[in-house]
Amino acid sequence: MRTYVLCSTAVWACLSAGLLCAQNYKLKDKILIGGSGGWDYLTVDDEGNRLYVSHNSEVDVVDLKTNKPAGKIAGLTRVHGIALAEGMKLGFISDGGANQVVVFDIPSLQVKNKIKAGTNPDGIVYDPYTKRVFAFNGRSNDATVIDAGTGNVVGTIPLGGKPEFPTSDGKGNVYDNIESKNEIVQIDAKNMTVKAHWPIAPCESPSGMAIDTEHNRLFSVCDSKAMAVVDSETGKVVGTPEIGEHPDAAGYDPGTGFAFSSNGDGTLTVVKQHGGKYVVGQTVETEKGARTMTLDRHSHTVYLATADFEAAPAATSANSRPRPQMKPDTFRILIVSQ
């Protein structure tokens, strides 16, 4: 049984006085990955003590005992997310460029199977309740459902809008942000049907999502600089604490009760429940572009990805918002902890 130390003596003293205490998260270290190309989601393997990082056409794997590269899964097209069925020792990669889900063996990192999905699979989650993988297809606006053990596609769920990041409560429900409609869908994981569509105004363009299964709370981060805290049973929005700009991922640590938003403006927002409300406990300086994250719940460590960029080229009539190019071999992982 793992024991968590939630707060220092000073923090407990602050809480007992009825004050909101700032946390002490800091950028502690960096892991250089190098290479070129963009990135998306990160995933921690709690059992194997590994970090999986989507990186252009491959998944980079980091040994979290040493913070050193430990291998890669290459030969893909455009990687978005990685989901792990740790009990089966299987991983699942959403390869958006190839419209497929790639299955790999966790111990060896060898590819075992490639499964056809919808158009541009993006967010992906393993649901332990049904032992199924749900791949959310960003262009066909649906979810491909895969039996994790057999690799067979067992269903497709129409979503009615562009999906982003999903999560599972492990009790029969899968949730996903619908970016184009500013809502969350609640999915019956067993029957593969949408049970509810929940508007999350004033939250606009939701992307990353995390869940507190003990207290039935969803945390969706939105381009409107807000985190929508939503009751996962009723769909009611119970809080909208302000976060940084350009968020793309969220996390929740059950050991501390903190929720996180990683923001492309170079900040990590730490949200805590206080006095019955969800409020910002700390804004951590990270690095510009560090918009995606994952959380190691054992060590309470946050991992984020970013790189250095050239100056953006001048806008043209054909491209009014040109993107800056990444500087080669600057891709890296940031380590944030208390």
Give a description of the structure:
The protein starts with 8 loop residues before the first helix and ends with a strand. It has a four-stranded antiparallel β-sheet with strand order 1-28-27-26, with no helix packed on it. A four-stranded antiparallel β-sheet has the order 2-3-4-5, with no helix packed on it. It has a four-stranded antiparallel β-sheet with strand order 6-7-8-9, with no helix packed on it. It is mainly β and about 350 residues long. About 0% of the residues lie in helices and about 50% in strands. The protein has one helix at about 10-15, and strands at about 25-30, 40-45, 50-55, 60-65, 70-75, 80-85, 90-95, 100-105, 110-115, 120-125, 130-135, 140-145, 155-160, 165-170, 175-180, 185-190, 195-200, 205-210, 215-220, 225-230, 235-240, 245-255, 260-265, 265-275, 275-285, 290-295, 300-305, 330-335. Strand 24 (about 265-275) and strand 25 form a beta hairpin. It contains one helix and 28 strands.
